[in-house]
Amino acid sequence: MAIKSNSSEQEVSGGGITLYSGLANFNVIAINPTMTELHTLGINVKQDPNYYVEFNGEEYFKLTFWVKNEDLTTRMEILMQSKEKVSKTGKHQWLNNIGQDTWSDGVPTYDWYKNPETARKAYTGEYTLINFVKAWANVAYGDEVMFDTMDKIVKGDVTELKALVTMLANNQVRLLIGVKDGKYQNVYLHNFGRVKPQRDDLFVKALNDEYKTFNAEFNTDLAWGTFVPQLAVVTPDEETVSENDTWV
């Protein structure tokens, strides 16, 4: 007899790739890296990434942030387009120099809207990028957060953004991670948190908004850890007995 046994407590097969979910702090380690840059980071890919994708006949640029903590290295993608963001009612999204947004037909004139002289029509995906950078760079309320080359960024030139990887090397951003299709890590894009204070309640508020749902599975208590899928228990159909049934 030859049996190489292991303790039942030891996982030796069938476990697959460990997936994580919940809220955790991450460092940004790369922005739209090449294959060579990914290999340097210990991320194995077989070819240079394609950062452009087409949906419904329109091309988008995939602004890709690689993020890492002690458990997980994954990527976050923001779809951007050199096209102004317009609502279904025809209003434009506007952004000012402090990253404040609003929707309006023309230049915003609301009393509460700051620095309207700096406002301009936002590109598709820009508001998500600005919110992410606000949290990552820990920008104080009312301080500037804007890019000089946004018209180039939305087309794929991320030179200005890449400088932040070094500049903010010691900064972290708090992200909600989920699992899509049972095998892919996914990052929630409707809220990004700061390390201090940890306003996890803002993630809960966003998740409860019908327009900001998360298309992924995640631990419902938002606690960080290994993802455990929720199994759907199938209830068998109730059998009915007929007087015509033959019993053996």
Properties at a glance:
single chain; 248 residues; 3-stranded antiparallel sheet
Q: Percent of residues in helical segments?
A: 10-25%
- State the end-to-end distance: 44 Å
Summarize the biggest pleated sheet. 8 strands, antiparallel
Order of helices and strands: EHEEEEEEEHHHEEHE
Radius of gyration: 23 Å
- Average pLDDT for all residues: 90
The beta-strand count equals 11
Which structural class best describes the helix and strand composition?
alpha+beta
Shape: globular
Strand content: 25-35%
Tally of helical segments:
5
Low-pLDDT residue intervals, each spanning 5 or more residues: none
Describe the structure.
This protein has 248 residues and is α+β, with helices and mostly antiparallel strands. It has a domain of 171 residues. It has five helices and eleven strands; from the N terminus they run βαβββββββαααββαβ. The strands form two sheets. Strands 1, 2, 3, 4, 8, 9, 10 and 11 form an eight-stranded antiparallel β-sheet that branches. A three-stranded antiparallel β-sheet has the order 6-5-7, with no helix packed on it. Strand 9 and strand 10 form a beta hairpin. The longest helix is centred in the middle third of the chain and has 11 residues. The model has no long low-confidence stretch (mean pLDDT 90).
Write the layout of secondary structure elements.
Elements: E1 20-31, H1 35-40, E2 52-55, E3 58-68, E4 73-84, E5 92-95, E6 101-104, E7 120-121, E8 123-124, H2 126-136, H3 150-153, H4 159-167, E9 173-180, E10 184-187, H5 200-207, E11 225-226
